[in-house]
Prior knowledge:
The chain is α/β, with parallel strands linked by helices. The chain has 13 helices and 14 strands. Strands 2, 6, 7, 8, 10, 11, 12, 13 and 14 form a 9-stranded mixed beta sheet that branches. A 3-stranded antiparallel beta sheet has the order 3-5-4. Strands 1-9 form a two-stranded antiparallel sheet. The two termini are 42 Å apart. Mean pLDDT is 84; it is low at 1-33 and 179-204.
Amino acid sequence: xxxxxxxxxxxxxxxxxxxxxxxxxxxxxxxxxxxxxxxxxxxxxxxxxxxxxxxxxxxxxxxxxxxxxxxxxxxxxxxxxxxxxxxxxxxxxxxxxxxxxxxxxxxxxxxxxxxxxxxxxxxxxxxxxxxxxxxxxxxxxxxxxxxxxxxxxxxxxxxxxxxxxxxxxxxxxxxxxxxxxxxxxxxxxxxxxxxxxxxxxxxxxxxxxxxxxxxxxxxxxxxxxxxxxxxxxxxxxxxxxxxxxxxxxxxxxxxxxxxxxxxxxxxxxxxxxxxxxxxxxxxxxxxxxxxxxxxxxxxxxxxxxxxxxxxxxxxxxxxxxxxxxxxxxxxxxxxxxxxxxxxxxxxxxxxxxxxxxxxxxxxxxxxxxxxxxxxxxxxxxxxxxxxxxxxxxxxxxxxxxxxxx
Length: 405
């Protein structure tokens, strides 16, 4: 049942429509002081050395031929490193002190498999899915307690990451909020609602007490999701961004994310995923395009969030499941590596370079050795952005970073 619930939002064609009563039902007062977290996953393994570029390191220049950059190309951070030249918006946000770059993020005994690595990042545990809920699922439970609101955690995109998985507080997943509707035919959720209703309208049968209770719970969750679908669609439809988002897949996703967190729906955690970062061959052209699209979308998101109190109280976390090998392969690309940078940006962020820079000469079997446990970043945001004891979410204590001013 829980795996079904985690995939319960289906995609509708058509455009958003809403009625005047529905608009009245939406809470447009976004003056709450509660923080909101947006989590953006770069799937495939982003090449951190082509994102935050240590151009002045001779080991970098020697290891990289097809992908390397010179000091005149990068957007300078200091005398040693700089942003990829396409990351103009992020460089400007960093210059404003509103973006933190945490270098060398990883974990002990790092894994180069996409799926196994994501299991660890998504659960914040070396056990992966064997640990149970995802870390965001645990966080949602701590924040909501015995209550559950469908819009509290929202994922925008086709594939909901396991980090949102929860046995008690499932997330709302939508491909596009302006086209979100409930699937209700051919044996779908609506039929299950009907089945539950029929079962509960009859006298209780002691032989089916457990089944009937489960169906009643499912019916309540589904009914809540049906009403939430219209609220999400309406909030996205009425949002007027203060900036034009780029006409790219990630631009569309982050526009919807921005609408949701500023829409007065009570969303505290929003999630999205962008793929394409597995650059084994011909990396230069592919990664340049990815950086341009990422920069355009994140730059627009940052500007749009600045247009409301709720947006200014929102923090964005960007991560990838691993970095890439230090040395290029024979196909003009890079293979799966280990440590890589994480990014945190927002109007309340205390920016700067954080974490110890990993050595390019003292490697972990050809990879960058991690210097900051990624769970320290999670823990810092759990506490500073959402006000929850990180140990209750992550199951252990991790050193804290000063991410929010």
